[in-house]
Predict the 3D structure of the following.
Amino acid sequence: MSYIYSIICKICRTIEREFKESLFFTIIHTIFLFFDRQWTNSYLFKFYPSNHRINLKSRILNEDLFNPMIIILLFSLFLIFGLKAASNSLVITIIIGLIAFTIGALYLPKFFLNNQNNNKRIIDFNPKDIYSVGFTLFLIGLIFFFINIGYVKGIPLFTPSLRYKLIAALTMPVFLMIPGIGIMESYYVCLMKKGKLTRSQVRFRFLSLSLTGIVLLLFLAYRTPILAILLLMIIIGYYGDSVSIGEVIVLALIGLAGIIGIGYLRSVNEMLITTSTNPFYTLQSRADFTIHVLDLLNALSGNLGLMHGGFILKSIPGSDYGPRMMVGKLISWRSGVTITPTIIGPMLIDFGRIGVAVGMCLIGFILGIGYKLLKITGNYFYIGLYSLLLTYTILGIETGILDIQVLIYFFVGVLVYLANIVYTRKNS
């Protein structure tokens, strides 16, 4: 594992060095520094990004807002938001999943990483190596963004029909900019803790990076990846002491408004609804439809499931049907349509209620260990990794954890956390 890590870091640092020596980077970097100085010297700088912190008396809001149990809260809200009630059978399945997740997130981590008296017993990654990986991922995403624009010969946001010409093989690399942004933002937190950047400078870089990613993904008319960038910025900033609880609330409302707005405009442009329709209808109907799909999958899967691992393999590029298209096929929906099955849908299809119990417990354990490492160390790397995994788990509440790159993020997270558990036991 260390050998692979060394090779990846060496390649990424070479790419970073070569790109930073180019004229294009020099121009972009000069422009960025110009705006950074202008903002720092401007009157608006007094208001944002400032060093003012809002301190609340609630320990949960100040320190534990994004602990793994937020998944339980958000999943429950998503179920409540649906227009129709779920069947009794589905309610039992959901309860099993929520209990299993709670056991994995709250109780199992208590048996690990208990001998930490200092950070020396935790694997510490070289910040410059990690930054190079993030920079390379962002660069790959940026390159493929322009490839996609050239491939469809236009901007999907302005011409909605072009979005259906996008192909997964070209769009998936674009989404690599999301973990790239998260890694670079966590690196800035590291620099702030070392006193090399001020809190205000870090906040400005957070804002600049996130807005860049949001604008690019907005041009491709995607909603979920935009929310991923916002969530990453919020969670990393929250635990990196660069985003206040008040800003968390404001950014969350902005993200929700953006998701509703984009969905409403797309539905109007595609003549699925009229301009007189309530904008919240698109969100409500989506939640309602997703819960209905989950009800059908629950009835089909039973206790032992249908595909016994075959469904998750559909995430591998090159499969005849993608996992979300496979959901449509299973419930006899229209062919070629992607349907989101919620976070427990894939577990149901493969292994039924038993799969839900085991799968939710495993996800809870991964997040629980990640959160414990974050709280023990306060290390920038573990803040970034936990934020990335929690972000995609939150998004997976509706969409499911099905994309190959997201599965790879979780695989990397498992390797890192297991390596720390083994390393800790050897040094205890």
The chain has one domain: 2-28+67-273+341-427. Residues 16 and 132 are 6 Å apart (CA to CA).
